Structures
1.
Amino acid sequence: MRALLTELMLIPGLSGYEERVAGCIARHLDGLGLAHRSDRLGNLIATLPGDPAAPSVMVFTHMDQLGFVIRKVEDSGLIRLERLGGVPERALAAQAVLICTEQGDLPGLIANKSHHATTPEEKYRVVPYAELYVDAGFANRAEAEAAGVKIGCPVVYLPRVIDLAGDRLAGTSVDDRAGCAALIKLAQRLMGRQTGPTVHLVWSVQEEYNLRGVLPAAMSCAPDIALQIDLLLACDTPDMTHRGDVTLGGGPGISLYSFHGRGTLNGVIPNPALVKLFEAAAEARGLPLQRSAHTGALTDLSYIQFMGTEGVACLDVGFPMRYSHSALEVIDIADLSGMVDLLEQALSQIGLGFDLSRKPR
């Protein structure tokens, strides 16, 4: 799992530019002998046929990462950026970045004003992204343009992976290359199954941009059940303890409530049958099951639940992660492996007669 996640985290894949990540995943699926297809947005889809009488399931995760696009190249050769996704401005200055051009990838850094010239008022000010610029070493705009730098080029945090103590790892785009790695591992497990529902595996696009890139894939698969893999906010650091009980290294978990509440009135209250299913699956495998309920977070599952004439039964399944949307996020590999075990067990229990109805009581 660590090697696979490392491989995926080192590939740049801004929202709308996921092809290289998809190519890596596709090669792993080819190695499994698992057929796959892509739609016009770039969603990568693989279907494992199962019992047609059982509810069909879509398990998905997103390939893209947040970042920037170039909005202006100055005459000096310095580069101005536009944010793409929920990039935290307070964590930008002095970050290393990678500029992805048609001629190749170029390193650069988001400039930080020299400390010796910083006024007392500036020392505690968060610099808005519009005032920041990237220095890639170019002496002028002509040099930058000759290297392939132009308006619209994607820019991401410089891909890095840092091995921490024990099973822990820090790096760029843990959100959600960890989910991508877990879904590949789940595919490996499901290739050898003898029974179970039809399962659609989807590696989706543009989650960090508009939360809706997965919708064409979901409409194509038309599942009865959708299970989304993404992070759960770890709450075991001093700044997060008031937010919940999810801990890094505490095992996989499920979300019982999500709501964005910051201009996007959407979220997921999960189907109770799926909550019971995953509680039973965790008990059967001897796994801890962490529970999360948060305002301020949202996944693309929020939109899938409203599809079709009957709706889709939905549940967010996740792994604890620290420092979301930072240039370096932290995960415990054991949590990710446990989540694969949990998903495998839960899927094995979905069969004929699995009841998703919401009858009056």
2.
Amino acid sequence: MDLRAIERAADAFQRGLTAAQIEAVCRRAFGSGVVAVRAVELGLGGYNSVYRVELAGSIDAVILRAAPREAVQFGSELHLMRNEYASVPWLAAIAPLMPQVLAVDWSHDIVDRDWMIQTCLAGVPAPEHLGRYPRSGRTTFFRQLGAITRTVHDVRGPYFGRVAGPSYASWSEAVIASFTQIADDLEQAGLDGADVRKAAELAAQGRATLDEVREPRLLTGDLWTVNCLLDANAPEPLISGVLDFDRTEFGDPAADWTIRMAQAKNDEREAFWQSYGALDLTPAAAHRARIYEARHLAAIRLERHRLNNPKAVHESYDALAKVLAQLR
């Protein structure tokens, strides 16, 4: 098999699969007679190892995604692929935009990692293609993204917390638990997590405000431009696919990463709200938003450490300190 892999540093978090492993995975998924003839590693993923695999005699390529080994996963990021798989039935309303799952394996018989095979969607990554359109025309993209996000947020869940669990009876419990888990991960990695533990304390003090959120709604996790595909031939931006729902949870839609990013700048992304709808701007909602920002910053710090970006890790302490001052 012809394998085109991405070269990475020896200490990189992501680890590729060998040609023999990819061949074995394809035989497990599709039968002993199936032959993988070519695999190209795709570089957009920051967590899983992702390959576009061509099979002998098949017109359509497939996408193989392999999770990191369990031993290197942080507790707050444990089994994200399993969470995504559990989310598929809850994302039925946007199923036409999503890849179909063809095979999954959590047994670690073939490789010592969870893996999933999906259909390969047509389209080009939005970060690569969106810049080809005039800025004035990109409002179309964000309007579509707002509609997709609204569709997901309209799904009612049975509990609070990650879709695959653990589940919580209240939103405050889920939020406080996530702060505590991230703090544990940071300290396990040799970083200072005291400010994240302080955020957990402040969230507990504001428990009543958090628990004004009584109905769990489905959150996309981290849907933004990097997780979208565009129709390569459309005269204006047209979202043809959405990917990577491994961080989904049931909770307050205002806590979603998508909402944070839509508010980040006053530019063409303001069109997002035309289809999504208006945000709650009450004082209670503003307090919750500061708690959510603290949670985002804590998770970002952990991700930056995983991606070996010490400068960004250092900067996260000042950013979180400002939010904690507002919460106090």
3.
Amino acid sequence: MHASPPSIASLAGQRVALWGWGREGRAAYAALRDARESGMGDGESGERFPARLTVFCTAAEAEEVRALADDALVVETEASAERLSAFDVVVKSPGISPYRPEAVAAASQGTRFIGGTALWFAQHPEARTICVTGTKGKSTTSALLAHILRAAGHRTALAGNIGQPLLELLDGEAAFWVIELSSYQTRDVATSGVRPDVAVVTNVFPEHLDWHGSEARYVADKLALLTEAHPRVAVLNADDATLSALALPDSDVRWFGRADGWHLRGDALWRGDEAVLDTSELPVPGRHNRGNLCAVLAAVEALGLDTQALARHALTFRPLPHRLQSLGTREGITYVNDSISTTPHASLAALELFAGRRVAILVGGHDRGLDWQPFADAVAARPPVAIVTMGQNGPRIHALLGGMAGRAGFALGEAAELGDAVAQAKTRLGGEGVVLLSPGAPSFGMYRDYVERGRHFAVLAGFDPEAIAAIPGIGIF
């Protein structure tokens, strides 16, 4: 059982802290500041927000917080178990794991950890929400869903993990709210006590093991959107073994990728026994993105809209950056930016898209302990021209591939950083082919995030990073 929904008003009279000062943390601060300045209470006891709010953040972030010159803010740079347990509620940023020892210890002392997503849902119990998650494909699915709803004439919000925290839109109004959720945020929906109208899950396979602590916990946290938030309608991928095994008695389950629903036959999109659309002109590459379109249309159908009439609007969708994004060609070499790729599975999907072409793929980054053996098995069977490893887990991937590269027939390089990796890839291709950045790992340690990594790749390839960076459709319109 969850405690009562954590509305912003319910925090009045409690000892509250913020943990994290990224965009989510700043959005939470603004929401709490506005509530404090408006004199908001809980409506029953008349309690008010405390005059001071503690922010736990890094030393670098502390300077930014102090620059606000808000006398109500107390800045601390060490979030110890002792300090965290001094608060009734800690509003934490999504990137901070609740499984960290200091968080677990504080929780055992009664501190409640919540996220901005839970606060937003508790403030909007009547909003028509479509929550989208999955190990891969959730951003494109969310953006494409919002695009089609807007094409149907509905004022639609696109927010969440895709790039705009929900709390930044606390006072916004929309007919539909399309909300992308990472595995860091899915339990927040359940915590809020509010049932989503529709929950879409594209797929589930291991990722973010450093945050969750184990593959089993990752899966449980990801699926909490279904098993604990109890959406009215669950839109699920019939081809995913984990999803296919679920029993969801509290939800109306709609399957995509199955012959009686939205599915693909070659490049043709079908609804049951009726052909609807030729997807060969879809402006996002790869069969997996055609599968994402099936998920989108199943969700639109669940909302009661005329899906077959709306399907054609997918052809006017603008692809998102850093997702199998073709930057262009220089001196015979085509550069493809798939910096969003953070699992070996995603790297393999990228290679599949370029099957039959001369490809040098750049892999490696932050080591989350994921298994690269399936990647090794796949490239042994269908080798690219070259693989260049880099980053923290680069040596581990290189060692795995080293014994088989010669037999499989691909060149194997090892780079200290991205610039070196790009140079090696170009040399291996010899003036013709594709340099594919699809790292299969996060960027942490070398870059702030996948966006910064993708922008640097664009610069190294000779393209303007500003021209490739915008995510279309975020916000309300």
4.
Amino acid sequence: MPEGHTLHRLAGDLTRTFAGHVVRVGSPQGRFADSAALLDGQLLEGAEAWGKHLFVAFPGERFVHVHLGLYGRFDVHDDVPDVPDPVGQVRLRLVRVDGTAYADLRGATACELVTAEQRDAVVARSGPDPLRPDADPGRAWERIRRSKVAIGALLMDQAVLAGVGNVYRAELLFRHRIDPFRPGHTLRSGQWRAMWADLVALMTEGVRTGRIDTVRPEHTPEAMGRPPRKDDHGGEVYVYRRHEQPCLVCGARVRTEVMQGRNLFWCPRCQRRFRPRTPTAPDRVTRTP
């Protein structure tokens, strides 16, 4: 599933390409046809992201709400000589009236026309987004510091923190040497502040480059004399999808385990098991030995 930096990058592409232009709006697949007809021939005002949600704004406080889910794609094509016929199951097509740009949405979990009130309701259910300047990390911290749920699960909860997915979850915890199974309420506020600042920097770089790179300069392929990582997600990472490969820092084998339906990756040596000073309650988080 695309992570938050992908949606913010997409919002920027849509805004640069279509904002201030009248657009033709269609639904070749047909599933968005009624709503597309209401927007066709209107001025596209811009696009913005909140976590993994995308909102494309039209006059009258109408918004196309998109959630890409696991398989969705929203491809933006600018400066084209002509607009080709749609290929495949295109849910939403935007075409600039001058015929020099178009965008096709396929496979999204959600594509719906919503009001400002409905948009605000989606945002209200979401945690703070590290890529938004108006984000309040304290909102996430209030949830984390009161929870006995593992921090590895809390980071993936979009109601706690918006936009963080499986890659950033694994890499952030590794970079801060935190056991993914450690209960949220055992973290210190200073640890959370450092994690938040790191997320802001990493995800901002992700928007700029379009990929997730989390390794520090001393662990790049050039610095270590190792081959670059080959993976369809791209980017240089410490633990994500590196099961049984040697940790780039300590050499221990990277571990993986399913947490809330997603594969979690961590280094058992760099991220040593958290052991509280006092016995935990019977409902403490468990992990595979």
